[in-house]
Amino acid sequence: MVTETPPHRQRIELVDCARGLALVAMAIYHFTWDLDFFGYIEPGSSVVGGWRIFARSIAISFLFIVGFSLFLANGTGFRRGPFFKRLALIVAAALAITAVTMLATPEAFIFFGILHHIALASVLGLAFLRLHWAIVIIAGAIAIALPQFIEGGIFNHQALWWTGFSTNVGPSTDYVPLFPLFGVVLFGIAAAQIARQTGLLNRMAELTWPDRLPVLGWIGKHSLAFYLIHQPVLVSLVWVFAQISPPPAPDQGALFLSSCNAQCVAFRDETFCNSYCGCLLDKAQSDNLMDQLFAPDAQSTRRLQDLANMCLMENTGPLDQIPAQ
What we know:
Layout lengths: L12 H26 L10 H26 L5 H25 L9 H12 L7 H17 L32 H17 L1 H7 L7 H8 L1 H22 L7 H13 L5 H17 L11 H17 L11
Helix pairs in contact: 1-2, 1-8, 1-9, 2-4, 2-6, 3-4, 5-6, 10-11, 11-12
């Protein structure tokens, strides 16, 4: 088996390009989300169907690269200074995003998004850098499977939503729980270990064609800055366009379905959410509660909760109707 590695911690341009490509894809998705938010496309279309799959694919690819890069940077020796400097920047950025979204969208702020996940996964991932790649793969598979065996109970407390074991997670515009997605980071670590042992890192380092993609490489090298800047820029552009050519007046029913589905798909499947939200909208219309959907008073809140419980019972089986102990 070949065990040579590239020159000591040589930067592999191909990895930068892959990271840059993932970030460009993320920007495309966020632009679509912005169009949805401002009302230029069908409400809720950015969080269901193909766009939802696209968003999840981006997160998975990005976390895989995080694991791969973690091994490249620290696999042959822990670099304390650079690691903690990078970690501090990511933690600071994650906290800033939480603070900003709490002010901008308090009903769906980001309490554990992609940067929060990267920060924690980077620390936990250190424990796996010296293990055999087969063990790391097994650990990754276990991490992905865990939510199927551990869910609900104490993990439904708001303070533990970040684990991924909760069954009643509140709405968030970016929710990337530790499990099962930490398994993807571990797969990235294992892939880098295999690449080093087989000499693939050597061949990746020798590739010259990534030099022809300077934009992707530059974005990949400055990933945190790009991540923090791209969405404010995109939102500003769409906002300016909205002042020139405002979107059509939104339909209240469509707005409700969009909001309801966006919150529901965080913890239930799309089929259930479409049926449940449609049921609640129909009942609200029948009870003349449309005006109260977005600004309910105490009386209408109780009635809407009754309607929500009715729709829940109509769209779940007997076992689902048993409250958690």
